[in-house]
Amino acid sequence: MDRLTLFQNALAMQTSRRKRAVELIVVEWNPLSDRPGLADAIAWNPQRDYLKIRIITIGKETHESYVNSRKMPVLEYPGKNIGIRRATSKWVLTTNPDIVFSSRLMDLLLSGTLDENTVYRTDRFDYQWRDVLSSGKLSEKAIENVMESQVFMCYAAASSYPVRSDLRRAFYRLSGFWPCSMKFKGLRKSIFRPSIIRHYYKTLWEYSDQISIAAPGDFTLATKAAFERCHGYFETIDTFTGLDLIMCHQMQAAGMRQCIFLYPCVIYHADHSRAAQQNRNPLTQLPQILSGIDSGEIAYNINAEDWGRPNDVFSEQIL
């Protein structure tokens, strides 16, 4: 609950400050009958003139219609598909409630300069949770400062970079030279070349044919039409791990270019227990699925036409 409270507080502040309207769809999957729903359990930010919140509730009967539902009480990607199907915006960003977008990333997202033929990705910075973040008393900049001061891992396009010491973290924060995607590789090879340093500070994105593996389930941005062209996230196999990476290959096979936002345009992820993921079946056929989509042997629009259950009517609250 604390992580969702921070997510919506930060988003309300970010949209209000930029005076740009955003629709937030929260899919509440298989809620417990003896507990209050999210609409009542969360202290929603009252200052959200530019943030429309829709809570779509998916009940137990729908949940049990999916393969593997007994092992996993929440099915992330069928939930994402239901949200995508019901989004009213031209652009759709699939993410999770333990994420906060950096200020510079929000500037880009709301700039109106995105390309419709591109799928956007970014790096993820994992940080240790601090209770003060959900207090609702911190400004947008203060929240970002607290998160950066607790970063311990950076997930980039092709690798991950641990931040093992306070001294290293302090250097990254002071210099801005965080370990991130492509431009960090160039910086490490030529640290003293002024052209590289200027490039580091001025370049906020780069296009790449190499699919980024940096937690795509936490940040994949494309037009709703692009998600529809791919028929959403894969729904029909006996697992729900690796499906975010499959979507990246689906997008590429559908003709979308990949653009990776670079630091400081990143997402911050609150570290948490992963005990609930222990019951997930490993996706042993993932390499075959990815290579099949890349070669065209498997259709990139992998689901049936009824993906995301477009004909079902679910309970919805608008806050």
Q: How does this model look, in words?
A:
By secondary structure, the protein is α/β, with parallel strands linked by helices. It has a single domain (2-318), classed as Spore Coat Polysaccharide Biosynthesis Protein SpsA, Chain A (Alpha-Beta Complex), CATH 3.90.550. 34% of the residues lie in helices and 19% in strands. The protein is built from 12 helices and 13 strands. The strands form 4 sheets. Strands 4-12-6-7-8 form a 5-stranded mixed beta sheet. Strands 1-2-13 form a 3-stranded mixed beta sheet. β7 (151-155) and β8 (160-162) form a beta hairpin. α8 runs antiparallel to α9. The longest helix is centred in the N-terminal third of the chain and has 17 residues, at 2-18. The chain is globular and about 50 Å long. It starts with a helix and ends with a strand.
